[in-house]
Amino acid sequence: MGFCECSIKFVLFIFNLACALLGLVILGVSVVAHVHGKTFKTLLEGEITTTSIVMIVLGASVFIIAFFGCCGAIRDDSCMLTTYGVILSAILLVQVAIGILAFVYRGKFASNFEKEIEKTFDDYKNPEDMATINEIQKAVECCGLNGPDFWSSSKLPPSCCGLSDLTATCDRNHTFIDGCEPKIKTLIKQSFKLLGIIALSIAGIELICVIFAFCLSSSIKREQLRAYA
């Protein structure tokens, strides 16, 4: 194997190692999103949960396939490298689609959420909605729809001060200042932007890995043919 092939083999191994690490990153971010998404599942009817599960599966797949590519490069296995390249190409297309959709629809998703959260806060006298509001205010560290003034009464919900005890008193001087609607909309847009950046970044690295995998596989096959000649 010549210098060029050895260089490709080395670069392929390094890039796959990077893919494996990035796969772990997207897996970790998605797990966090899934855990926090449970707080808002009443509002979004499972949209965050479904999205996070898809990203968890994708992140785990990237890690496993990248590890598979590392093994193929080390063992000089053309069949393994070709299989790796085909599978990674399919994953790459999915990630590009997810990355683009995350950028394009992050505003629309936030707007849909805005309607649901307004409806929930308008029905705060409903015990179930009030329980959801308390969970949101404590988790996001916000108070009221657009700020503490949303609560016209002098007594604020304990969750406005981050308190779990619903019988506790929340002092207006120690309440969260930000309203829940603008803060959560910002968090959603930032989360979708982050997921889009991560997905497209991994896709860029994977594209190089696919090209190198097919080049290395072809080189190994040529070496094997020369050996049998």
TrEMBL record:
Membrane topology note: Multi-pass membrane protein
Domain of life: Eukaryota
Entry annotated with the keyword Disulfide bond: yes
Tagged with keyword Transmembrane: yes
Keywords: Disulfide bond, Membrane, Transmembrane, Transmembrane helix
Localization per Swiss-Prot or TrEMBL: Membrane
SUPFAM superfamilies attached to this UniProt entry: Tetraspanin
Family matches, as Pfam families: Tetraspanin
Transmembrane residue ranges: 12-33, 53-74, 81-105, 194-216
Disulfide-linked positions: 143-161
Protein family: Belongs to the tetraspanin (TM4SF) family.
Protein's UniProt name: Tetraspanin
